[in-house]
Specification:
Helix content: 40-55%
Number of strands: 6
Oligomer: single chain
CATH architecture: 3-Layer(aba) Sandwich
Structural class: alpha/beta
Distance between the termini: 35 Å
Mean pLDDT: 96
Radius of gyration: 19 Å
Number of domains: 1
Number of helices: 8
Order of helices and strands: EHHEHEHEHHEEHH
Bound molecules: 3-methylbut-3-enyl trihydrogen diphosphate, magnesium ion
Amino acid sequence: MSVSPVVPHHIAIVMDGNGRWAKRRFLPRLAGHKQGVDSLRRCVRACAERGVGVLTVFAFSSENWNRPADEVSGLMELLALALGREVPQLKKDGVRLYFVGERAGLSQKVRDGLVQAETATAENTRLVLNVCFNYGGRWDIAQAAASLAARGEPITEASLHGAMGMSHVPDPDLVIRTGGEMRISNFLLWQSAYAEFVFSDRLWPDFDESALDEAIAAFGSRERRFGKTSEQILPAHPDPMPG
Ligand code: IPE
Ligand code: IPE
Ligand code: MG
C-alpha cells in the first residue's frame, strides 16, 4: 500500500529558465516565455489535483525591467494575452487569481486585465493562484512600512504582515526554484522565513508533474523545527517497557 505524500498547503515557485530553454533550441527568448505559460497551466492543474491550497509564482521581478526593451514589452503582451486565454478555464477549474506587485508602472491595459481576472475568479475556492508580477520582496516590505507610517500605525510583525501583498494567504511551506540557480532573487523575502527550499535543475518549461512530485517528496522528508528541538517535534512515543 502506498503512503500518500505530505502535501504542502502553500507552494511558491521561482519559474526560472525560460530563456535558456529557448536558447538551446535556437529560438527567441520570448518563445521560452510562451512555453513557460504552458508549463504554468500544467502546474496549476497538478497542484489542484494534489490538494495544494495556494500556489504563488514569480512571473516578473522589480529587477526584470533591466532586460532588453523588446523582451520586457514581449512579457507585458504575453501577460495580457495569457489572461485573455486562460481566465475562462481557470474560472471553471475553481482557481482564484490574485496579482501581487506594484501596479504603478504597468500599462492601463495590463492593469485592467489584472482587475478583470481577479474579479472573474473572486468566487473560486479550490486553489488560490498568486501571480507575483512587478514584484520584489524589498518593495513589498518597504511599501507595507510606508503605508503603516502614513496611517500613523505602529510597525510590528503582525501589522507589517497585514500590510503586505500576501496578507491573504499563510506563508509558503515550500519554495521551489527551477533553472538550477540557488538564490532567492528578491522573491518572498519576508514570507519565506520558515519555508523549505527545493532547487531543481529543470528549466521552467520542462518542470512537469514528476518534477513537482519530486519536490513534494523532498518536502515530505524534511523535519520542520521552527526553532524547536527534534524531540519537541516528534510525537511522543508510548513507553516501550511499561511497568
Ligand atoms: C524566468 O526565465 C522568467 C522571467 C524572469 C520573466 P528567464 O527569462 O530568467 O530564463 P533564463 O534564466 O534566462 O534561462
Ligand atoms: C527571477 O529570475 C525572477 C523570475 C523568475 C520572475 P531571474 O532570472 O530574473 O533571476 P536572476 O537575475 O537570475 O537572479
Ligand atoms: Mg533567469
